[in-house]
Energy-coupling factor ABC transporter ATP-binding protein (Daeguia caeni), 228 residues
Amino acid sequence: MAAQFLRLLDVSHRVGGRTVLRKLNLTLSERRIGIIGRNGSGKSMLVRCLNGLIIPKEGRVMLGDLSTARHARTIRRHVGMVFQSVEQQLIMPTVAEDVAFGLRSLALSRAEAKQAVDAILAELGIAHLAERPVAELSGGEKRLVTLAGVLVMRPDHLVLDEPMTGLDHYQRRCLSERLLGLPQQVIMVSHELDYLAQFDRVIALHEGEVVLDGSPESTISAWKQRYG
Ligand SMILES: Nc1ncnc2c1ncn2[C@@H]1O[C@H](COP(=O)(O)OP(=O)(O)OP(=O)(O)O)[C@@H](O)[C@H]1O
């Protein structure tokens, strides 16, 4: 599945009579893609379309030959999503239990599940948090645990909606470095223009439309001139 691209074909979406995404046509083939835009420009709507959480009113979102309208469950196994609000994604009492939660659907033995959880916690540098109660973690720790819960499923594509929100400078740097080192494709909504400068492509949305799309240098400088 790794070589299969997410594509939006003539995607438009309306909520409560308002058009929030307009005629989006995108093939998301680069390894690191940033999505920028002012508040309310449709960034969260767009990324929620990518794993079938939102099925657009018009057009299609595809992963390879599969459309989210018909194969959302399959697509979700390949497209991991980290939401803006971490609280929505943390549901079990301890870190290890929370990270193991999604693995229940994979029919692994107890030992295999533990090994997978230990490995991902170590990769993210948070093995020491394994037995801590989720409720007692800092905002940054919670975000890393959320990320671990998604990465443990080994998705091919990772979609993150403003993952740096609430993190201090040190935590931002740790998360930034870890994200850049991941083997997965990363599609990330962010206001951190300096960070996105290291990506392969940046797409800018304005009022639900793609208004800029290209290299980080070209998109970000034009963005600052027009909307910054
Ligand atoms: N449930 C809803 N009902 C009506 N309108 C909604 C709903 N959810 C989102 N919208 C509207 O859709 C538009 C796009 O919202 P979206 O959350 O995608 O913006 P965003 O670019 O992610 O913003 P932010 O940077 O503030 O997170 C906004 O105008 C928002 O008010």
